[in-house]
From TrEMBL:
Signal peptide (UniProt feature, chain positions): none
Domain RNA polymerase sigma factor 70 region 4 type: 109-161
Source taxonomy: Bacteria, Pseudomonadati, Pseudomonadota, Gammaproteobacteria, Pseudomonadales
Any GO BP annotation: DNA-templated transcription initiation
Keyword annotations: Sigma factor, Transcription, Transcription regulation
Family matches, as Pfam families: Sigma70_r2, Sigma70_r4_2
Location of the RNA polymerase sigma-70 region domain: 12-78
GO molecular function, one term: DNA binding
Protein name per the record: RNA polymerase sigma-70 factor, ECF subfamily
Family affiliation: Belongs to the sigma-70 factor family. ECF subfamily.
Amino acid sequence: MTVADFSSVQNLYTCHHRWLYELLRRRLSNAMDAADLAHDTFMRVLKRPQTFDCEVRERSYLATIARGLCIDHWRRRQLEQAWLATLAARPPALQPSPEQRAIIVETLHEVDALLQRLPKRVSDAFILAQLHGMPYRLIADEIGVSERMVKKYLAQAMMHCAILEAELDGLLIE
């Protein structure tokens, strides 16, 4: 990042941080989450600085980034709530420790992000096979493809899972 880029981002922050924070606070109904997502928005801007010719485009750019972060935030919260509901149904003796819970929730977020990046049929086939234990023939009927395509989809999903596992283990070098 050049000095000019940093100066541009600094100016963007100075001019629009309060506006963005208020927009997020209204959308999320939570000041702490709004502050976090406003921060995350500017962190993304720092990674890819842009030049704008008017304030409307600056705000539009910031709002677009913030909207995507809100969607991710809501998806993460929904996933966490589903996990906590499942946990609540378990007997106290089978409850994971707080550290285990944190690791499980983070892993769920990573798997969810992985599934979101896969084509719909690939993620559908993976979920039907892994979570529902369906055989290839039934998966093929369910998603409207051949058994051979189901095998291909599952191989693709497993490859992405292996990459994710390697990333989580810190084995991949960028």
